[in-house]
Amino acid sequence: MKFAKRLTALLIVAVMLISSCLFVNAAKATVTVNSTHTVDTGVSYSKLTVKSGQNGNTVSGVALEFNPADGYMPMVFAPYAGSANVLADYYSVATTKYGYDVAGIINGSFFDMDTSNLLGLNISNGKVSCAHSGYSGEVVAFDSNGKMDIVTSCLEYKLFIGGKEVPNSPIRYINKRYENDSWGPDRIFYYDTSCGTIADTTVKGYEVVCQKMNNSDLIVGSSLFAKVVSVGENTYGTKFESNANIESDKFVLFVKSDSSFAKYLKDLKAGDDIAIAVNETNPEAKEVMEKANSVITNVGFLVKDGVDRTRIDSAIGTHSVTLQARWTAFGQKADGSYVFLTTEGGSTGEGGSVTLRDVADYMISKGCVNVIRMDGGGSSAMYLKRTSAGSAGYAQYSSRKVTDGIMVVKKSSAVKSELVTALNTAIANAKASVASTPNASLSAAIAEAEAAVKKGNVVSGDARALIAKLSGKKELFAIATTASSASYLEYSEE
Predict the structure, then answer these.
(1) How far apart are CA 161 and CA 275, in angstroms?
(2) Which of 35, 111, 355, 450 is the most exposed place for a label (fewest CB within 10 A)?
């Protein structure tokens, strides 16, 4: 009896080992390239047929490839962060309102299908464009040279009125729509042009319209400085002023009339000082987040540091690695170049599609050492500046509205001449200051800014961050984010 039990146990172990080996060595996807064309100099597009190594299904796919060394960079974008829209509208807003030269765009991170709220955060051209305080999670950060890092971020937003900090970090949501019973905690809401054309509020309260000052914005490791323009009582849905190719320079702070924070906003007057300090609270992520030009919430690694996680893990995020669905992913090769991929298929989980493991197979075959999956299913889509027909259009179509995406943008189009002029002025002023009063940190900031200007194509986000460093407000910001009693706007820069 004992011998029989032992034999049975050994047979079970043997079967498990064989199954494990079969799992690891499962067949790989095969990909056929049907056609290729150049979207723009340095950006190429391929139309694919992907045959699943897991289930034998065959679907269409599209891939976009570029190397940042050729003048393009990945940029996260959310022109309707308070709601949602389709990629064709993203392209239109990016090119006409912001003046970006966009080669292509894919859909981004997960969002709430009922409220259209992005579940995480994003940063676009250096500016926090959609977020909420208290969010802590893994994000993908791109600098303006195309370098990619993955860190765990947790941003905080401190509000100062007349130089005095409003307690309990009251700013909760950045360009996220909450309405009626869906409104979150008793907090203040921030809206600017990234949420669309109006403040995404549908209940009445106090709306404080503010003018951004000194080329500042919601930049990690710095402060947005502003003056109050007007205060609306029992209002909602303030419109933003914006013209073609000009980003709006106003924002709205909103608070419900019955909020405990209403007392801080309702008596404000035109000309009052407002400041919002944005701080990365995770020390290990601080340097990356302060240098990031774009940030998007990480949905999950398919390949990490050259290791195929789909052959090790049974699920990536909340989805099985063998789930059949449409997929969106992007990967970076060892040489710094990128591959953006979307695949077609049937409804999620209903068959007729490829799997995350198949996606990983293709990306590895292209030389990607890190691959991140984005939202899939009906959200998967790619829009191009130039399709094979020669005009802008969908390479992979979806009618679903999404809340953010990743664009391939010509770096030179993300530069604003007025900000470069302001940066050069800040360099000159900082040099004069150091000449009279030596300052090691300011001298380092001058060297960094001069190197950036010399290299050329200083994008807007980098220019604003450098101006903040050169103005001396970076050091004041550091004090403000570590000492709650600091009223740094009451003091001169010296």
Answers:
(1) 7
(2) 35
Number of neighbours of residue 437 by Cβ within 10 angstroms = 9
* 3 alpha-carbon distance from chain centroid: 61
3-class secondary-structure state, position 405: strand
Quote the distance between the C-alpha of residue 247 and its chain's center. 18
SS3 at position 5: helix
Q: Which of 277, 224, 220 is nearest to 249 (CA)?
A: 224
Nearest Cα to 467, choosing from 431, 419, 412, 432?
419
Strands 171-174 and 188-192 turn out to be parallel
The phi, psi pair for 371, rounded to 5°, reads -135, 130
How many helices (H) and strands (E) the chain has is answered by: 9, 28
- Measured in degrees and rounded to the nearest 5, phi and psi for residue 392 equal -65, 140
Compute the distance between CA of residue 35 and CA of residue 356 in angstroms, rounded to an integer: 23
**Is the Cα torsion angle 162, 168, 169, 171 positive or negative in sign?**
negative
Mean pLDDT of 416-445: 93
Distances (CA, A) of 446 to 144, 334, 467: 19, 32, 10
146 φ/ψ angles, rounded to the nearest 5 degrees: 90, 0
Q: Any idea what DSSP says for residue 61?
A: E
Dist. CA 206–CA 255, nearest whole Å: 5
- 452-459 — which CB contacts under 8 Å span 24+ positions? 452/423, 453/420, 453/423, 453/424, 453/427, 457/411, 457/412, 457/414, 457/415, 458/415, 458/419, 458/420, 458/423, 459/125, 459/126, 459/144, 459/293, 459/411, 459/414, 459/415
Confidence of residue 200 (pLDDT cuts 50, 70, 90): confident
Rounded mean pLDDT of 400-411? 96
**CA 486 and chain centroid, separation:** 30
List, for residues 327-354, the tens digit of each pLDDT value: 999 999 999 999 999 999 988 888 899 9
Q: How many residues does the chain have?
A: 494
What distance in Å separates the CA atoms of residue 361 and residue 310, rounded to the nearest whole number?
9
- How do residues 228-265 score in pLDDT, each as one tens digit? 999 999 888 888 765 544 567 899 999 988 899 999 99
Q: Are 139 and 298 in contact (CB under 8 A)?
A: yes
Instruction: Enter the pTM of the model.
Output: 0.89
Q: Where do the DSSP E strands lie in 27-174? A: 30-40, 43-51, 58-66, 72-77, 102-107, 122-124, 127-132, 137-142, 148-153, 155-161, 164-165, 171-174
Q: Please determine, for residue 306, whether its predicted confidence score (pLDDT) is greater than 70.
A: yes
